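COURSE: Structural Biology Practicum
ASSIGNMENT: Worksheet 4, Part C
STUDENT ID: 0417
INSTRUCTIONS: Below are two proteins. For each, the amino acid sequence is given first, followed by its structure token string. Answer the questions at the end about the second protein only.

PROTEIN I
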Amino acid sequence: MTSLPNLDQLNPEHLRALAAQLLLQVDTMGKKIHRDQTVIEKLTHEIAQLKCFKFAKRSEQLNPQQASLLDDLIDTDIAAIEAELQALQTPSVPTETKQKPKRTALPPEFPRTLIHHEPNNSHCQCGCALKRIGEDVSEKLDYTPGVFTVERHIRGKWSAMIVKR
């Protein structure tokens, strides 16, 4: 590498020329590094393929004597697979037993307090009327010292009325 002159003694035009020369060198070296990396990746890939061709074939070969061992088991395996397929193909009768709730209902002798949860108005944002299509009911056991009560929450289900014109 050539020795650089003292930068303090150079005038601005020489500094610009030197900077342009250095930028050109950096650009050419960057291109060379990219080209070298591409060649290295290509050669690495080729080496991996050659190793595969050379070593994988030997490690995956079957000895002819070992192949006869597998032939003996093939018939029993085929019979077992056919039996499994027949077992899977038999139509099973769907049992539609309704699952019982995990909790039992609260006793009917407890006093109940009805709490209705309804929307503030019966119109949706677009202005159509909402229609009540059902309700969800949930019960909650409440205990105040000496008294059990049941809070029954009733939440209405509402749907927008679609008017055909």
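PROTEIN II
(use this one for the questions)
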Amino acid sequence: MAETADDVKALSFEAALEQLEQIVQKLESGRAPLAESIAIYERGEALKAHCEMLLKTAEARIEKITLSRDGKATGTEPLDAN
């Protein structure tokens, strides 16, 4: 876990989530010394923010297929277009 916060930006969603899960397990176990707990908590915050950003980016790219009255695809529109 010696990677810096800048390294977090290069991680895929899955890799960041896996590291975040490991951090949570370690913190919940209570076995890490205080200084290490603080350091991995800070990394966890960076990983969480990265995962949230990746999810928001993915949500922005999802489109809804629009259909005509007879059920044929006519195009797409943003998923949250209300």
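ANSWER KEY EXCERPT:
Q1: The chain has a mean pLDDT of 87.
Q2: The beta strands are 63-67, 73-78.
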